[in-house]
Structures are given as structure tokens and as C-alpha cells.
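note to self — DONT lose this again. spent like an hour looking for the file last time. sequence + predicted structure for the chain T wanted, 79 res
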Amino acid sequence: MIVDVAAGLFATAGLRRTTMETIAAAAGRGRRTVYMYFSNKAEIYDAVVESEIRLITAPLSGLARTDDALSTGISKFIL
């Protein structure tokens, strides 16, 4: 949940204006709770980036494992 909240804040307020305090408040948690999971804002940012990469690449991993011809697999992915 913290990663999802941070992603929204980074997208709307920007990286510089998003603080550990604003992430904690938006998540409805205390700062100490956020610090239990992440040492600093950079760690949260890295987790957000990793999460977004997984969302983007998940459909592609299935494409890579298929026995279909590449053009058929790409067509299924695009459409």
C-alpha cells in the first residue's frame, strides 16, 4: 500500500515535494511505520519503479514463453 500511495504522490506532487511525512500521511500511517519498511525516500522510489516495470513487462513475459510465431504473439499482445 505504501508503494501505491507513494507512486500517486510522485506522479502528482513530484519527487522533490513528496516526503516521507507526506507518504505516511497519505497512507494513513505514522512515519515510524513507513521507516519500518523503507530506510528513505530513495528506497520507496526504487520500489515504485520496480512495481511499474513489473506492470509493463508482465504481459511481455507471457509472450516470450509462448510457442506461437513471434508475429502471432505480438499481434495478440497489441490487440
